Automatic annotation (TrEMBL):
The keyword Membrane does not apply. Keywords: ATP-binding, Nucleotide-binding. Residues 48-214 form the AAA+ ATPase domain. One of its GO terms (molecular function) is ATP binding. This is AAA+ ATPase domain-containing protein. It comes from the Eukaryota. GO terms for biological process: anatomical structure morphogenesis; protein import into peroxisome matrix. GO terms for cellular component: cytosol; peroxisomal membrane.
Length: 310
């Protein structure tokens, strides 16, 4: 199951423009991650480097944000180095640990590192940090961090396996201080389940909430960001579309709306092709009726009750 979960290395190519709304979140992330990278002298002046923890309901854009940081920072690394030397890495040796590698960005899903063999999970964690130090400057992204670092003593495992995993993770995080050029970002839907020692200064000490889009303006911005990659008929008024949306939508909900509209456009095109009214060539354009169709199925994926958790 381990190797199956890993897959081929992927290169993130998410830019800030692909992420709609979340203005405050973006700003906070840039201040935390990019400022010290672009101005290392600030670190000597007393600015402390923090690990970033993105938390919030599923589908709100946490993974997307981490990928955008990686894209953005790879440019910073390139600039500060004056060469692409630091981006060199050994794909083969990284295989088996990372689901996503781009020289500067290691993306690790918490559950991927957990292994039933005694001591193997800790070894996997050591390995991630070893690779990261070799590839530095780089960013390590821990998705589903709660599965890797549940509250010690409460994880329900009798042999204390998870306790040792948490201890190993903490030791590695503390060990990063000497180098300074490995940056960690974590993401979780369940910050309440995290071992609290993970949040101490010098570890994941910068907490950033990534929430649902509650107002029309942010929904509109997310919709526009998603639709950058779609062709939309000029008669479609996106402000009208969001007016007809439920409130409390995640980015993933809005993405689902767009792909449903896309599905409707595809069906329409197929019908027209079979009727001989259209050729197969040509692009697919989303119309107002495609959006109406999709809106009728749109439901917020995060309930009011779930939102109370944060
Ligand atoms: P999970 O906690 O389930 O891992 P997440 O918060 O990491 O969720 P993402 O994987 O980043 O969520 O988002 C899921 C998808 O939703 C993205 O691939 C993207 O298509 C869309 N999406 C989410 N938020 C935004 C946004 N702010 N702008 C544009 N698209 C978004």
């Amino acid at each position: 199951a381990h190797s199956q979960a890993i897959g081929a290395p992927k290169i993130p190519s998410v830019s800030w423009q692909d992420i709609g709304g979340l203005q405050e979140v973006k700003k906070e992330i840039l201040d935390t991650v990019q400022l010290p990278l672009e101005h290392p002298e600030l670190l000597t002046l007393g600015l402390r480097r923090s690990g970033l923890l993105l938390y919030g309901p599923p589908g709100t854009g946490k993974t997307l944000l981490a990928k955008a940081v990686a894209t953005e920072c790879s440019m910073t690394f390139l600039r500060s180095d004056g060469s692409s030397e630091s981006l060199r890495y050994d794909r083969e040796s990284l295989r088996g640990i990372n689901s996503c590698v781009c020289g500067v960005f290691f993306s690790v899903k918490g559950p991927e590192l957990i292994n039933m063999y005694v001591g193997q999970s800790e070894e996997n964690i050591r390995e991630v940090f070893r690779k990261a130090r070799t590839a530095a400057p780089c960013i390590v992204f821990f998705d589903e961090l709660d599965s890797l670092a549940p509250n010690r003593g409460h994880s329900g495992d009798s042999g204390g396996v998870m306790d040792r995993v948490v201890s190993q993770l903490l030791a590695e995080l503390d060990g990063l201080h000497s180098s300074g050029d490995v940056f960690v970002i974590g993401a979780t839907n369940r910050p309440d389940l995290l071992d609290q020692s993970l949040l101490r200064p010098g570890r994941f000490d910068k907490l950033v909430y990534v929430g649902v889009n509650e107002d029309r303006e942010s929904q509109l911005q997310v919709l526009k960001a998603i639709l950058r990659k779609f062709e939309v008929d000029s008669s479609v008024c996106l402000s009208d579309v969001v007016e007809r949306c439920p409130t409390q939508l995640t980015g993933a909900d809005l993405y689902a709306l767009c792909s449903d509209a896309m599905m409707s456009a595809i069906k329409r095109k197929i019908t027209r092709i079979t009727e001989g009214l259209e050729s197969e060539a040509g692009s697919l354009t989303l119309t107002a009726s495609d959006f109406s169709q999709a809106l009728s199925d749109l439901q917020p994926s995060v309930s009011e009750q779930e939102l109370q958790r944060y």
